[in-house]
Predict the 3D structure of the following.
Amino acid sequence: MLKVQGIDVFYGEFQALDNVTLKLDKGQTVIVVGPNGAGKSTLLRTISGLQKPRRGSIEFEGQRIDRMEAHKVVESGVSSVPEGGRVFPNLSVQDNLKVGSYNKAAREKAEEWLPRIFELFPILATRKKQRAGSLSGGERQMLAIGRSLMSQPKLIMLDEPSLGLAPMVVNMVFEFILKMKQEGYTILLVEQNANKALKVADYAYLIESGKLVYEGRSEDFDKNPYIKTAYLGI
Amino acid sequence: MFEQIIMAFLNGILLGGVLALLAFGLNLIFGVVKIIHLAYGQFVMLGFYFIYFFHTSWHIPLIPAMAMGVVAMGLIGILTQLLIINPLLNAPRLNQLLALASLIIVMENLAQVIWGADYRGIPITMPIIQFGDIFIRSSFLAAFIGAIFTLGLLYLFLNRTYLGLGIRAVAQDLDMAKGVGINPKVIYYVTLAAGGALTGLVAAFFVPIYTVHPHFGASFTLMAFVIVVFGGMGNLLGGFISAFIIGIVTSVTAVLSSPEVADILAMAMFIGMMMIRPQGLLGTES
C-alpha cells in the first residue's frame, strides 16, 4: 500500500533522513522506533507531503505522492495525527473535527461521521463547543485522532501518540489504536514507548540518526539483544 | 453642549462601524496570509474611483455601479495576491513591506494619471434625521448599518462554511492546515478577494460622505493600521472593539476641541497601548 523507497531528506544542510526504505501492506500496523531526533517525525512529515525528499520516491496505492502538495496527499487517503495531539487551539472541538473532513470526498460523509466520532470519544461530545485549547493532553490526542478519522483515511500515521500522557491515558490511546487496527485501518505508528507499541504492531523498524538500522516482525524485535537493552529496558 | 457631545458620541459609533469594516479586511489578510497590506487605504481610493467612473462615464445607476466597484476591487485583490504577494510569500518581511509600499505609489500615481488631481464626487443628497435636539446624517447611518450587516455576514461566512473554517485554520497553524487537507493558495486568494471586495464596499459607503482624490487613501491606511494594531494584530474581535474606541474618541474630541487634537489623541492612545501592551488589546504575546 505504502512504499517509501530510499528517501533522503534535508533541512538546509542538515540531513534528517538517509536512504530510508519502508513498506506497509494494507491492513498492517507498522511501528517506527528510535530515539529523539532520529528522524521519525521527519519521516511522517515527508510522507504527508509537508517536507520534500531530495532523493527517492514515495508511492501510495501505486501513485507517486512525494511530489504532491500536502492537501493532495490527504485527498489520496493518507492522514496524520501530529505529535502531542496538535489541534487548532482557537477552534471549537466540533470545528476541529469538521476541519478534518475538509477534503472533498470526506465532506459528504462529515454529517454521518461526526456522531460516530462522538460515540467513540464521548468526552469530546460533552466539550464540543469548547475551545480545543482548553482540553487536557489526553483529550487533545483523542481530538487529533478523531480529526484524522474524519478525513476518511486509508492510512493513518500517528506521531508519538503517548508522549506526555498519564499511564492510564496511554493505555486508552493504545486500546484505541488496536480498535482502529481491527476495523481495518492501515496504521503507521511512530513511538518511543516501544514496549506498548510492539504489542499492537505487526512489523517494526528501528531508525537511528536518520538511518534505518533494523527491521523485522514485531515478535522478533524484542529478541534482538541490542534493541532489548537500548529500547525495551529488559 | 451636552447635545453636541451626545451627537459626537453617536457619530463616533457610526464612524466606528465603518472603521471596523475597513480594519476587518486588513486584519484578516494579516491573520491569514501574514502580510501587512500597506496599500489597503489606497484600495478604498481606487474603489471610490471605480464607482465614480462606472456611474459618471458609463452612466450606470449608482447602486449597480457600487456593486461593480465591489466586484472590481475583489478582482484587484486577486491580482495583488497573484502578482505581488505570491512571489514574495517566503521573502523577508521587509521585502514584502517594500513591495506593498510601492503599490501605494503605483496606485496613487495611476489614479492621478487617469482621473487627475481634482476632487471628484457623486453629488447625492441624503436627509438628516432628527430626534429631538439630536441630528444624525442618514448617509452615516446607512454606512453604519451596511457595515454592521456586512460584518455579520462575514462572521457567518467564517463560522458556518468550510471555506471560512479553512481560513480560520490557516490563520492559526499553516502547517497543520496543510496536513488536514487545506490548500493554502486557495485560501490566500479567497482572503485577498474578500479583503479587496471589502475596500470596494467601504468606498461605496463613503460615496455619499466624501469626495475622492488620488491621496484619499493614505489616511485610511493609517487609520486601519492603527485600529488593527491597537486591537491586536490578527485578532478580529480586538479590531472590532478598537474601531469603536478610536471612532468615539476622535469624534468626541473633535467636538470638544478640534479634529487635529482628536488625531493627536488617537495617535497618543496608540503609542500608549504599544508601550503598555505591545500585543494590543486582545492580542496574544508572541
User: Anything to note?
Assistant: Residues 2-117+129-276 of chain B form a domain with the ABC transporter involved in vitamin B12 uptake, BtuC fold (CATH 1.10.3470). The first strand of chain B starts at residue 128 and ends at 131.
